[in-house]
Structure formats: C-alpha cells, structure tokens
Automatic annotation (TrEMBL):
Residue ranges of every copy of the NADPH-dependent FMN reductase-like domain listed in the record: 10-154
InterPro entries xrefs: Flavoprotein-like_sf, FMN_Rdtase-like_dom, NAD(P)H-dep_reductase
Taxonomic path: Bacteria, Bacillati, Actinomycetota, Actinomycetes, Streptosporangiales
Gene Ontology, cellular component aspect: cytosol
Signal peptide residue numbers: none
Name of this chain's protein: NAD(P)H-dependent FMN reductase
Length: 200
C-alpha cells in the first residue's frame, strides 16, 4: 500500500487562461475528473486567477526585489518544483497561447527540467493546436519533454454538456492516451533524475 502511494505521480495542471468569462475552468475540471479515476497520479490545479504571478521581471539571476512579488511566486514555484510532470490546459489566442501562460513559464527554469508536459487545448476552428505547437518550441528550451498525443477541443463552447461532461467520447479516450504517455515519461524521468541528476 505504502509503496503504491509513494509511487504516485504528482502532476501540476497549469490553467493558462485568466480572461473574465473564461471557458477554461470547464475544460480543467473535465481533466481533473480523469485524474480522479486514476490510481497512479494526483493532480494539483494551478489556476493563475487564484495565484497570479508578477509581470515585471528582476535583474537576470536575482530574486524579485519586492516582497509582494516573492510572495506571489512562493504560491506557485514550489508546486512546479515538486511536480513529476505537468499538463498545460491552454486556449488559443491569435494562433498562439495566452501571454499569462508565457509569463508563468518564463518565471521558472529548473522546475521544468527533464520533466514531461502534456497538453489539453481548446479554441475555435483549430482546437488550440497552434497554441500547443508553439508551447512545444518554448518548452524544448526549458529542457522539458513534450508528450506526442494531446487532447484538443474544436469549437469548445459546444463540446460540453451543462454538467461539464465532454459530449464526444473520443475526447475521453484521447485524455487517457495522453495521461498514460505522460505517466510513462514521468516515471522514466523521475527514476533517471534520481540515478543521474539532470544538469543543464
Ligand atoms: C484574444 C483572443 C484571441 C483568440 N484567437 C483565437 C484563435 O486564433 N484561434 C481560435 O481558434 N480561437 C481563438 N479565440 C477563441 C478562444 O480560443 C476561445 O474563446 C476560448 O474559449 C478562449 O479561452 P478562455 O475562454 O478560457 O479565455 C480567441 C479568443 C480571444 C479572447
């Protein structure tokens, strides 16, 4: 029993939308329902509305000068540091991902290193896939490993019933595939980091 608990993966779910009237929480809560069905991983939802981050960066290599900025970071950074893996829930804004998400990514470095990242995207025609492809480029710079299979909701407003259930069962299949791949990489990289600490 304890072995199983010790082996559970900690997954930080980063919700990348902070817009007033946003649809993001519907998508994030649907994803959390998938975690609730699994015995191999626990999710920690990081909602950037509840835990906003500063937007003024410090001198390179120095901590933020203001105590307020340090306090905001303290609510997020340790959760990213302890995560074995990440899932980013992102809408598509102008063929990319929201600026608030880039801000959250840029505040962190080693927290991303040698860890896997999966994606759930949503938007209009493109299902947020252009946002995901751009995130892959950014995360490669941060020594993260992005998961091939993702989940995308095209025309997201019509994809959920009032209870927050995805109306297309293919999306549930896609979520399981993505999380299974994420689990494989998260275990593999956690074991590898323990044997040979990642240095970059
Ligand atoms: C500033 C902005 C830009 C958008 N650009 C795109 C886009 O390029 N492609 C697309 O498919 N949908 C686009 N959309 C639609 C969003 O993906 C959709 O409204 C989604 O619900 C936004 O996520 P949110 O509700 O969590 O903020 C855009 C929406 C906004 C607010």
């Amino acid at each position: 029993m304890s072995d199983m608990n010790d082996n559970r993966l900690q997954i930080a779910v980063l919700l990348g939308s902070t817009r007033d009237g946003r649809f993001g929480p519907v998508v994030a809560n649907w994803l959390l329902s998938h975690f609730a069905r699994r015995e191999d991983m626990d999710a920690d939802l990081i909602d950037l509305v509840e835990t906003p981050l500063p937007t003024v960066f410090p001198v390179l290599g120095e901590p933020p000068a203001s105590p307020e900025a340090r306090e905001l970071l303290a609510a997020v950074s340790p959760r990213l540091a302890t995560a074995d893996a990440f899932v980013i829930v992102t809408p598509e804004y102008n063929h990319s991902f929201p600026a608030v998400l880039k801000n959250a990514i840029d505040w962190h470095g080693r927290e991303w290193h040698a860890k896997p990242v999966g994606f759930v995207s949503y938007g209009g025609f493109s299902a947020g896939l252009r946002a995901v492809e751009q995130l892959r480029l950014v995360l490669a710079e941060l020594h993260a490993v992005t998961i091939r299979d993702s989940v995308g909701f095209q025309g997201v407003w019509a994809q959920f019933d009032p209870a927050g259930t995805a109306t297309d069962p293919a999306c549930d299949v896609a979520a399981k595939t993505m999380l299974d791949q994420l689990a494989w990489w998260a275990h593999a990289l956690r074991e590898a980091r323990a044997v040979r600490p990642y240095s970059a």
